Amino acid sequence: MEKLFFLIVTMTAAVSYLGGKCLVLSTYTIESPQFRVVHLESDFEIRLYKEMSWMSALVYGTSFENSTKDGFHRLYQYLHGANLNSTQFLMTAPVVTSITSSIPGSAYIVRYYMPSKYDKTHPPEPYTELNLQLDKWKSHCIAVRKFPGYARDDNIEKERDALVASLGKHLPRLMQAVENKYNYSIAQYNASKHPTGRINEVWMDVLGFTAEGCPV
Asked: Residue 156 gets which letter from DSSP?
């Protein structure tokens, strides 16, 4: 379980992410955050992620699907040059939508993973009107459950609850280390027009899994 994972997806032709505009690309690889699996069960795993940076869009709304589309539309503009350097970025994966109860009302934070070269440097500033923010995550552990199909309003809470139940069954001591079972993220690895073989994940931050190398 000491292998370091660096998920690379080879893509060809046109892709359309989360209802955004169509982006025509030649063959290339999609960069993803690096992690190491420190605990594995049949229905979930604990990953230790390295430091990573995200460009994030905060959306207030009542729908996971609509908020993800709205946030990604702003991120899409940033990726296609709506920044002070007019820099254009290749797509990375996953697109992560964090659902949080720490902000009054329904809040969703839609995130684009910044290529690893920006872990130690600052990326181009987005245009102010996009209302985007750079988030730098320290190395930490995340409990992950995979699920197929599309991530929708009517199934994400069920998948979150299944992850919480699995943690309680297999690692009951770890339930004390789950930061907040109502704060979680949905990671989507595929374009919206990719109907088969889809990969989605529920992410929940965990603390105190020190025996397996997770930061305190």
From this structure: H
C-alpha closest to that of 5 among 28, 25, 34: 34
Could you tell me the pTM of the whole model? 0.85
The total of other beta-carbon atoms located within 10 Å of residue 149's CB is 10
CB 48 within 8 A of CB 83: no
> Could you give the CA distance from residue 9 to residue 199 in angstroms, rounded to a whole number?
11
Q: Do residues 89 and 17 touch, judged by C-beta distance below 8 A? A: no
Q: What's the pLDDT tens digit per position in 49-82?
A: 999 999 999 999 889 999 999 999 999 999 999 9
Instruction: Give residue 176's pLDDT band: very low, low, confident or very high (50, 70, 90).
Output: low
User: Rounded distance, CA 62 to CA 177, Å?
Assistant: 28
